[in-house]
Amino acid sequence: MKKIEINSTHNKEAINEILEISGERIQDCMQCGKCSAGCPASESMDLLPHQAIRLLQLGQLDRLKESNTIWICASCFTCGQRCPREVDLSKLMEAVRLTIIRRVGASKLKADDVPNLLDNKIPQQAIVSAFRKHHK
Ligand code: SF4
Ligand code: SF4
């Protein structure tokens, strides 16, 4: 059986940051798959939503960051509404995106840099989802 590497120190720090940003409890997910079954964007994703949260549980953050799923997610909140354990996956997706964006150029994103990044360097989805998050 293939050995799964769990939680490198680097990933632990990054995952703790994701949990802090999102405020979600990934350990509550029981892998029922209801989020994936209701996700309107799942057909275009290379990892289904319940697989994405499983990777977070296993500390496999690099695999999640390489997937298109975090950028395809439309922050529609359907998954959170369907989850029997009240895990809001859309907030986790947003937090993963933020941890990537904040490290553009191996440093935190500065407010002064934002106008320069709007010419297709930040995925449009990240901007739209951040807007939704702050205008609910
Ligand atoms: S619906 Fe909730 S408990 Fe079920 S797999 Fe998705 S996140 Fe986990
Ligand atoms: S918020 Fe994202 S992952 Fe959740 S149902 Fe909507 S598109 Fe799918």
Automatic annotation (TrEMBL):
The keyword 4Fe-4S applies. Keywords: 4Fe-4S, Iron, Iron-sulfur, Metal-binding, Oxidoreductase. The keyword Signal does not apply. InterPro entries: 4Fe4S_Fe-S-bd, 4Fe4S_Fe_S_CS, HdrC_iron-sulfur_subunit, Helical_ferredxn. GO terms for molecular function: 4 iron, 4 sulfur cluster binding; metal ion binding; oxidoreductase activity. SUPFAM superfamilies: alpha-helical ferredoxin. Residues 17-50 form the 4Fe-4S ferredoxin-type domain. GO terms for cellular component: plasma membrane. This is Heterodisulfide reductase subunit C. It comes from Garciella nitratireducens DSM 15102. The lineage of its organism: Bacteria, Bacillati, Bacillota, Clostridia, Eubacteriales.
